[in-house]
Amino acid sequence: MIEPINTPRPLDSDTIRRDDLVRFRQQATELGLVVLRIPGIDQGDYALVRTLMESYYGQELSHLRPDIRVADHRQVGLTEPHLEHDPRHKELATSLPEHLRPFPHKGPNPFMRFFWRYGSRPVDTDFPERHADPVIPKRFRNVWATIMNDWGEKISRAGIICARMTEKAFELENRAIQNIMHQGPHLVAPTGCDLITLLAERSQVGGGTIGMMIKTTKDDAALQTLAWRHNWIGLVLSDWHTDFNLFTGHGPSNFPGLLGWTPALDKAFPVRVPPGCFLFQFGEGMEYLSAGKLGEDRIRRGYHQVVVTMDTLRTLKQRLLLGLPPIRVSSTAFFHGNSDQRLAPLPQFRTGDWERRYPPTTFGAYGAEVIKQIGLGASVAS
Ligand SMILES: [Fe+2]
What we know:
single chain, alpha+beta, Jelly Rolls, ten-stranded mixed sheet, 13 helices, about 35% helix, globular, binds fe (ii) ion
């Protein structure tokens, strides 16, 4: 368990304890993530988003397809299952020693994802697809914007705390990260996986049968036997990757299964978000700002993967017995730099051959390249 770091109270105060900043810097550099205790934000508020998303993802795919926005490279609305595929890390994944190697996966990610853009948008931008009009699913039009914006505002406050703590812990200029984030294409990005459907696909047995088999296991040993017989452990829901943003926020998910790796790739661990806390894992953008690979005391991207574990199956059984949907919904939120802002190492990190390793670009151009590589601009399969 990673020991959570306290954040200032009240949230707009700049009074942060010295030892919390030291621990922040240590977690950020060693783990590529930080766990922050943020008492002013009630995680229970996410329950509304989760319940909404369970209903949304529980629909037939044909009802979801109208929410796909290909022209905006799916940067708002739905990403359908079995579409996104990040080919950038395959070689590195297979080069790791066996005990650190991610679970193998071929092809695109099975998850669905909905992007809800929150916060103010720039009037003029070279990257309009990152700031497109929001998509409101028809069936939920009366509640969608209110629920999403309410959570977006809360998670955004948590993200600002993370940015302020980063500035202070790394002795950056006042508001260095917050200014970069101003009007960035921040997203509430809950993913959805219908676990019964995915387990059924792997077992080549009908979903109803799979549900009944799990529900009627007489104890934990029987569930484990079932899992091993059907090769369910390690079924990949989201393949091993890093995020191209500044950092990704996680509150509680309704199912465990998120795994994290240290940036040095010498440890892998299940990611747990303690009650009252938020976890922020740093992405490629923050690594770029600190020229992360050019020195020890800097921030590097954190790798992660989402898979079915025994804990996922235990939760699934409990939920089936309670009559709850078998749909894993993440509480992911993406924090980005402003699309039109320069993306280059901050002055204090410009050492060695930084210009070759981290050539100046813009957040928008960097993001557009990754979005292209991972296939989010692909047309909708019939
Ligand atoms: Fe990710």
